[in-house]
Structures are given as structure tokens and as C-alpha cells.
TrEMBL record:
Cleavable signal peptide: none
Protein name: F-box domain-containing protein
GO biological process, one term: SCF-dependent proteasomal ubiquitin-dependent protein catabolic process
Pfam families from the UniProt entry: F-box-like
Lineage: Eukaryota, Viridiplantae, Streptophyta, Embryophyta, Tracheophyta
GO CC list: SCF ubiquitin ligase complex
Provenance organism: Lithospermum erythrorhizon (Purple gromwell)
Superkingdom of the organism of origin: Eukaryota
InterPro entries with a match to the protein in the record: F-box-like_dom_sf (IPR036047), F-box_dom (IPR001810), FBXO4 (IPR039588)
Domain annotation F-box: ranges: 5-51
PROSITE patterns the UniProt entry points to: FBOX
Length: 246
């Protein structure tokens, strides 16, 4: 019969649970395969209930944590993860279908963010599905915007996450057209502004103007907003392609 290691024999369960509480889901699953001792601890309901609460805190608050105690929390977590994965895939497909030449109109951009909000995604969900380096930068921006505006994630934590996912230097170009000013009884041409920004820039105060434009979308003083994956040069659209406004 295989004997337990000294660590397994003498490590108190409360200390072991403390160690597990610092791990990500994938690490908990890996640790549970190490031995019978860790398997029993990593399969416990208290561990998976804590993982569920950590990943979907808003969902727990909305339901007032009223789930019965007899639930298999690992199964509950797995079902919710599968459901969340399907929703995220559908939303990514929605955005990709509305991308035209790596650009998206602000109406569709804001609709995607509202969809994430209605799904009650947590910060872990956004990291898992939207903050991937292989995704289009517009999808990265949608996830980042949601974290800043709806989840109120601290800038330091977001910057650290962008660094861990190699997204700090990924750039987008935001263009917006403002209604021309009146000058001596004549309305001047509509004004176009263009800004190349990195995802890291949006976590700082210096780019709050751009974040404000994205958040407001098209309002009475802003005629159009377009978000594009940055190229070496961020060239504006020809003015003659702009819709006419009276």
C-alpha cells in the first residue's frame, strides 16, 4: 500500500484549503490529480462554491446565494462554464460578422458591450474569452471597455492582466465626426478627429476623452464613431463618403 508523503500526513486541512484558494480552476484540477489526499480536498463543495463565487460574483449577489447546500458545486460550475462559453462564442460571432475591414460602427460596438453586461460576465470571463492576443483588437477593446465601465476593475489590475496576456501594445484607431460649428452665420464642415491608442492607454486618465466618446456613441454633437484595428497609418475615410446631414 502506498504511504502518504510527510506533507500529506501533517498538513492541516485548513492550510491545504488556503493553498487551494489561491489557485485558478485549471491548477485546482491539476492538483487534484496528484494524490488521493489532494483529490478529496479539490473535489470538495467548499472549493468549487468558492470558485463559483469568485468567477461570477454579480450572479451570486443577484441570486442572493440561495442555492441549496446539497448541490454538487463542481457540476454547477461546469454547467455554468459551458453556458458562458456558448454565450461568449455567439457574441464573438456577432462582432466578427459586423466587422468590415477590421472596423466596426459604434452602434454595434456598444450593443456587444450591453450584451456582455446582460450576461453578467465577471472579470474572469472577460479574460478567458475576450482578452486573448489572437483575437481581433476590437474584441479585446470591447472586453476592456466592459471591465472599466461596468465592472469598475482597478486600472492597476487591468494593466497587469493586459501585460500577462501580451496585449499592452495592441492598438485601435478611434475616429469620430463632430457637427461643424457656426461661424458668422455659416456652418463649417464637420470636424473629424482620429486617435491611435493602445489598450494600455485606455486604463490611464490621458485617454478618458476617447473612452467617453466610445461610451456615448452617436449623440447630438457626434455624428459618427468608427473603431478600427490600427494599421501603420490611421487614415481617415474620404469626406465625400460621409452621409449628408441637414
Amino acid at each position: 500500500m502506498k504511504s502518504e508523503t510527510p506533507m500529506q500526513s501533517y498538513l492541516p486541512q485548513d492550510i491545504a484549503f488556503k493553498i487551494i484558494s489561491t489557485l485558478e480552476v485549471s491548477d485546482v484540477c491539476s492538483l487534484g490529480s496528484c494524490s488521493q489526499f489532494w483529490r478529496e480536498l479539490c473535489l470538495s463543495d467548499s472549493v468549487w462554491k468558492a470558485l463559483y463565487r469568485d468567477r461570477w460574483p454579480t450572479l451570486v449577489l443577484a441570486n442572493h446565494d440561495s442555492s441549496p447546500n446539497f448541490m454538487d458545486w463542481k457540476e454547477v460550475y461546469a454547467r455554468k462554464h459551458a453556458e458562458t462559453s456558448l454565450k461568449a462564442a455567439a457574441l464573438i460571432d456577432f462582432v466578427e460578422q459586423r466587422l468590415s475591414g477590421d472596423s466596426i460602427e459604434v452602434g454595434n460596438y456598444l450593443k456587444a458591450i450591453e450584451e456582455i453586461h446582460s450576461m453578467m460576465f465577471g472579470f474572469h470571463d472577460v479574460q478567458m474569452f475576450f482578452l486573448k492576443p489572437k483575437l481581433n483588437a476590437v474584441l479585446n477593446l470591447i472586453g476592456l471597455h466592459y471591465c472599466i465601465v461596468f465592472l469598475n476593475v482597478p486600472a492597476k489590475r487591468i494593466t497587469e492582466t493586459l501585460k500577462n496576456h501580451s496585449l499592452l501594445d495592441k492598438q485601435v484607431c478611434v475616429q469620430w465626426w463632430k457637427l461643424g460649428r457656426w461661424f458668422y452665420g455659416y456652418r463649417l464642415r464637420d470636424e473629424m478627429q482620429s486617435r491611435d491608442i493602445s489598450l494600455a492607454d485606455l486604463t490611464t486618465a490621458k485617454e478618458r476623452e476617447v473612452l467617453g466618446v466610445l461610451q456615448r456613441g452617436v449623440v447630438h454633437e457626434v455624428l459618427r464613431v468608427k473603431i478600427t484595428v490600427s494599421k501603420p497609418m490611421c487614415s481617415p475615410w474620404p469626406y465625400q463618403n460621409m452621409p449628408q446631414y441637414e
